[in-house]
Design brief:
The protein is an alpha+beta fold and about 900 residues long. It contains 24 helices and 30 strands. Strands 1, 2, 3, 4, 5, 6, 7, 8, 9, 11, 12, 13 and 14 form a 13-stranded antiparallel β-sheet that branches. Strands 10, 22, 23, 24, 25, 26, 27, 28, 29 and 30 form a ten-stranded antiparallel β-sheet that branches. Strands 15, 16, 17, 18, 19, 20 and 21 form a seven-stranded antiparallel β-sheet that branches. Helix 6 crosses helix 8, helix 7 packs across helix 9 and helix 12 runs parallel beside helix 14. The protein is elongated. The N terminus is likely disordered. Keywords: Endoplasmic reticulum, Signal, Transport. It is found in: Endoplasmic reticulum. Its main location: endoplasmic reticulum.
């Protein structure tokens, strides 16, 4: 009575008797919850029977398999906190396409799960079990990972998927839900591409739900997980893996005989004569990714037709390339050498393949077969260079390759004809060092960096080492490069240093760097070459100028500087960025409105021939690609031009191919044809003190790797030889190669224990050719550049376990063709007409999905195939109004 009175006084509310039933109900639910928190999911000393069902599917349910088995779960050892469960599988079978196959080869021995404070910690399994079945047992054990003392909490757990971030939701006293994210074993990468646009995208999630009895017995546990795996540059191309694992209670058996051991550790120890202890975290089942027993030699012989030179620039060669690559990565040096010996007519295609392999076996085979010191033939030198150019785009080369190339550079050249090979070795080594992601304190990185900086400081071959530093892109080399850009009295050295600095990410620079780049562009301390100034401008804009800094650029347009080609470059660059970025467009328009002295026809009218533009080449459903073209003109002659192809994936972009042209000292060919044109005269942008040597060449960059430049001529004698001999009038190959693009491989462990293996390989086969006709009599020139590109991307996914497997292979083929024609007329006024065209193109997507039942009576296989073709019409790209006017004038007189 006293207690009742105390409670009544404590409540101090009217009608307290009415609140009593509610309070009792709450206390009852709390008591049930406490029972569930501390009760074992499998009651002490009991035997429980469950049905286990594991279903894995690819996108559609028709491509799926289901594994089912009966589980007998016995609690064979217990104390107040810990428990040992004995689990035995029986009546197992797999099912696909309504084809039911019993599994008769499963061992009849049970496995054990050790639970500490109610949570699974270890699996004790028979040593003879294969990795796939061991992972299945780990998956069953992980279903008992339920923290009933958690309430809407986020924490970390370790189960079959490794360490995962988990979040619990308590739905009722007998129902829990758990969400798993960012599991370590969902992203077991073997290879990956550092460029996001050339990589992959993955979205993974897992939901688990638990139903318990009022006493805490596990009635149902269900896991549903999804892994969406796509190409970053084409999100609609990829695979979706669904997995459902369900444990359903069937019945309760009789009492179970207990292991008579004092501790859990002793109970486990008593089993170790035939058993081993395994952690809960799964291991990859390597069987899922095994290749068929075959040799690279035999596969090449089957694909001889597709490897012929006439397939360069076509998707057929790119597709063959990626099909051979997985097998080539397992091939040893003797087989490579035998292949190069027996298939010498295909040597050019084979060295491209060996470069993409990136193993020391392939590297040794290449040098052993082609390099003979002073006795190396010109053809072998060319093929070895080709191997190095393919290797340069590698993303995961073996360290021993870097060490060998560095040692090669320490050797004395046996002959001056090896200078080009040495250049290619240097550029390849620098690129591979960057791609390898070596630690900043790595001794090899320090040796390579110091070697390049010593070469930069020397007066001999400064340009060679500057290009290598461009490929290395080590932040510790920024200041030496910047000093060269600021202080070098030779324009080509300053330009090369700024080209190298432009390759660095914008976040590499701080405010003092901005001031130094501004000093170059605005010529605050001395005069700089026009190319150096435009490159400095590119870096300043990449650093995201403030409104004040943008205003200073606009004010420059109204300055008294007579270098109108640079002003044209500035204006076109700003307009191009405004087209791409809405934020920049708003700031640009605001700054213009505030400057009446700039925002007028006199200042904004285009007075130069320089062109800066970006054009969309293709969009979804094809790849999202753009073309960036820069044509810097000086005195009517193309001084520095580039055409770059950019692949986009969301906000990320990657340069897939860049072609650059440079010239110097060619203004004498223009004569004084425009001397009497008054205000239309094109001013001399670079009145350098010394007379420049007549030079022209081509620079090629493949996926950011700068290759050794190709020199067309050096000096007036070589130039006149080309003009009078007409050696450039016929179509001439400038670059022919098949190189690796996408290169990704990873594993995923599913909650059911099944292993997913995903490999994405892509290749680009490029056939770049051109011709030039030059007439001193008619005072005109015509240039035609044709690029044929064949692209193939193959995504192969396999998922399964010992008795069932699903496969999906997606292949994308694409053959974009681009042509650039330039007509120059300098008979009277200087007129330059450029026409950029893209031919009609097709993108073909083939999808093959397969299901296999294996190692069972009457194995079964079923394949589903589909093909989709997307056509994009050809188009001619509008460059700018000035170019249109020039083309109309030239075509009218033709």
């Amino acid at each position: 009575m006293q207690r009742n009175r105390q409670m009544s006084g404590k409540n101090r509310c009217p009608n307290s008797n009415a609140a009593l039933p509610t309070l009792l109900l709450q206390l009852f639910l709390v008591s049930l919850s406490l029972v569930n928190c501390f009760a074992n999911l499998i009651p002490t000393g009991s035997q429980q029977f469950y049905q286990l069902s594991s279903e894995v599917s690819l996108e559609a349910e028709q491509v799926s398999y289901t594994f089912e088995t009966q589980l007998s779960i016995n609690s064979v050892w217990n104390n107040e906190q810990d428990q040992l469960l004995e689990i035995k599988l029986s009546e197992s079978h797999v099912n696909a396409q309504q084809r039911l196959r019993p599994i008769l080869s499963l061992p009849d021995r049970p496995f054990y799960v050790a639970l500490v404070t109610g949570q699974p910690k270890q699996v004790i399994a028979h040593t003879s079990r294969d990795q796939s079945l061991l992972n299945l047992e780990r998956g069953i054990a992980s279903l008992f990972q339920l923290r009933r003392d958690s309430s809407d909490a986020k924490e970390t757990e370790l189960d079959i998927s490794g360490h995962c971030r988990v979040e619990y939701k308590v739905k009722s006293s007998t129902r829990w839900e758990k969400t798993k994210r960012d599991c370590a074993l969902w992203d077991l990468r073997v290879n990956y591409h550092p460029e996001q646009a050339l990589g992959v995208a993955q979205h993974s999630e897992q939901q688990l739900s638990y139903d318990l009895s009022a006493e805490g017995l596990l009635l149902r546990a269900e896991s549903v997980e999804t892994h969406r795996l796509t190409l970053a540059a084409k999100p609609d191309a990829g695979s979706v893996v669904h997995s459902k694992l369900r444990l359903q209670h069937l019945a309760e058996g009789e009492g179970v005989e207990q292991l008579q051991q004092p501790t859990l550790a002793a109970a486990i120890e008593s089993l170790l004569e035939w058993y081993r202890v395994f952690e809960l975290e799964a291991d990859v089942d390597g069987e899922i990714s095994k290749l068929k027993e075959q040799t690279l030699q035999s596969q090449v012989e089957l694909m001889l037709e597709q490897l012929k030179p006439e397939h360069l620039g076509k998707s057929s060669l790119a597709s063959t390339f990626v099909q051979l690559l997985p097998l080539a990565r397992l091939t040893k040096q003797p087989e490579f050498e035998s292949l190069l010996e027996s298939q010498s007519p295909l040597a050019a295609q084979l060295v491209d393949l060996l470069g993409a392999v990136q193993t020391f076996e392939a590297h040794n085979a290449s040098f052993s077969h082609f390099y003979r010191g002073a006795g190396t033939t010109a053809e072998s030198l060319e093929l070895l260079e080709k191997y190095l150019q393919s290797l340069a785009v590698a993303t995961h080369p073996e360290r021993r390759i870097l060490e060998h190339l560095y040692d090669f550079l320490q050797q004395k050249l046996p002959h001056k004809s090896h200078l080009k090979l040495r250049d290619s070795v240097l550029q390849t080594l620098a690129t591979l060092t960057r791609q390898s992601g070596l630690d900043a304190n790595d001794q090899l990185l320090q040796q390579i960096r110091n070697y390049l900086l010593e070469g930069l400081a020397s007066t001999h071959n400064t340009l060679l080492y500057t290009r290598a530093l461009q490929n290395l892109r080590d932040p510790l080399t920024i200041d030496p490069l910047l000093q060269q850009a600021l202080q070098s009295q030779q324009p080509q050295h300053s330009v090369a240093a700024l080209q190298a600095l432009k390759s660095f990410p914008a976040f590499s620079y701080a405010e003092p760097h901005r001031q130094q780049f501004s000093s170059i562009f605005y010529q605050r301390q001395r005069r700089y070459d026009s190319s150096a100034r435009t490159l400095a401008l590119d870096i300043l804009l990449a650093m995201r100028p403030s409104a004040e800094q943008l205003g200073e650029l606009l004010d420059y347009l109204a300055s008294t500087d007579r270098q109108f080609e640079i002003k044209t470059y500035v204006l076109q660059k700003l307009r191009m960025l405004a087209e791409i970025c809405p934020r920049f467009r708003s700031m640009f328009q605001t700054a213009l409105r505030q400057r009446a002295h700039v925002n007028n026809y006199n200042v904004l009218a285009q007075r130069g021939l320089t062109t800066v533009l970006s054009r969309q080449l293709s969009t979804s459903p094809a790849f999202n690609e753009t073309l960036l073209s820069i044509q810097e003109v000086s005195q009517g002659i193309l001084k520095r031009g580039s055409v770059e192809f950019l692949l986009h994936a969301g906000r990320a972009e990657a340069s897939s191919f860049k072609l650059g042209i440079y010239t110097a000292g060619l203004s004498s060919f223009m004569g004084d044809s425009d001397a009497d044109e008054g205000n239309d005269q094109i001013p001399a942008d670079d009145e350098l003190e010394q007379e420049e040597t007549m030079t022209a060449g081509m620079e090629i960059s493949v996926q950011g790797a700068q290759l050794r430049p190709l020199v067309f001529f050096n000096g007036q004698t070589e130039l006149m030889g080309h003009v009078w001999g007409g050696s450039a009038s016929d179509t001439t190959p400038a670059y022919q190669a098949t190189t690796l693009a996408q290169d990704h491989e990873q594993y995923i462990i599913l909650a059911s224990g099944a292993t997913v293996h995903w490999r994405v390989l892509g290749a680009r086969s490029v056939d770049l050719n051109g011709k030039v006709t030059f007439s001193l009599w008619n005072r005109n020139a015509q240039t035609e550049i044709q690029q044929n590109t064949g692209t193939a991307v193959v995504s192969h996914l396999a998922v399964g376990f010992t008795y069932a497997k699903l496969e999906q292979q997606i292949e994308l083929r694409h053959e974009p063709k681009l042509s650039l024609q330039a007509d120059l007329d300098f008979y009277s006024n200087i007129k330059l007409c450029m026409q950029l065209e893209r031919a009609e193109q097709l993108l073909t997507l083939s999808n093959t999905r397969s299901v296999y039942l294996q190692l069972v009576d009457k194995p079964y296989a079923k394949h589903f195939r589909s093909t989709q073709t997307i056509k994009s019409p050809g188009r001619t790209f509008v460059l700018n109004q000035k170019n249109n006017e020039m083309c109309n004038m030239i075509l009218a007189n033709s």
